[in-house]
Amino acid sequence: MRDVLGPAAEQLGLHGVGTLHEKVARSLKRPQGLKRRTKLLKHARPIELKSPAGLYVGKALGVPFDSQRMHRVGIKIARGIIYHDCRTLVPQESVICFGIPLQQVQTEREKELKRDNPFWVRLGWNSCLHDMFADSVAVRRVYLGHRTTPDVTIECTMGVMLLATFFIVGTSFPLPKNAPKQFRFHIDESTGAWIRTDGE
Q1: In degrees, to the nearest 5, what angle opens at C-alpha 76 toward C-alphas 75 and 78?
Q2: Residues 23, 6: Cα–Cα separation, whole Å
Q3: Which terminus of the chain is less hemmed in, N or C, by CB atoms within 10 Å?
Q4: Which residue has the higher pLDDT, 149 or 100?
Q5: Residue 76 — φ and ψ, nearest 5°?
């Protein structure tokens, strides 16, 4: 993923990409790196490069986008972040994830906020957690608790920026018994299930 996304991130001028580019260049000189490069270039096709203003700036080789592999990477990152936050391993099959190019995020966000899309609304909350987990991995996430029987169900809304891709992630899981004390989540009060009654 680094080899594929690195050049796109470099073209966008993202922070920390210069170091990444050096790592990719070094790795491609090793035997395993040469195998990866050969595999990547097997299906490459010539493309024309254009500036953000639409001006022609030259030719390059375009590598086909493997969306399934990309989404698997997004799911792995999301599961790792959830484990970091609340010490629970969410099953891979319960995580919904898809990626969009970073340059489309602002347009997508504005369009979906007009529709009150809960994903974008929640990521705009002031209490949304935001961390850099590496030079090239920024994560925003919100946890929302729903009172269910017999436990509390946590709904996670997450946005992961990995180089030139933004992953939209959603999943839910039972509130773990061993969650760290600093783990905090919003409470869904819409059903009235959190109202304490006599004897509780």
Answers
A1: 65
A2: 10
A3: C
A4: 100
A5: -60, -45
Upstream peptide bond of 150 is cis (omega within 30 degrees of 0): yes
Residue 99's CB is within 10 A of a number of other CB atoms, namely 20
Residue-wise pLDDT tens digits, 136-164: 788 999 999 998 888 899 999 999 988 77
Q: How far does the chain reach from its first CA to its final CA, in angstroms?
A: 51
Give the CA distances from residue 116 to residues 66, 106, 121, 141, 172, in Å, rounded to whole numbers and listed in that order: 30, 15, 7, 17, 20
Tell me the pLDDT tens digit for each residue of 82-95.
999 999 999 999 99
Residue type, 98: F
Helix (H) or strand (E) holding 140: strand 137-147
User: What's the rounded Cα separation, in Å, for the pair 77 and 128?
Assistant: 18
CA atoms within 13 A on the CB side of 121: 7
Phi and psi based region of residue 160 (left: phi greater than 0; alpha: psi -120 to 50; beta: remaining): beta
Beta partners for 74? none
- Largest Cα separation within the chain, whole Å, is 73
Asked if residue 188 lies in contact with residue 146, where contact means CB atoms within 8 angstroms, the answer is yes
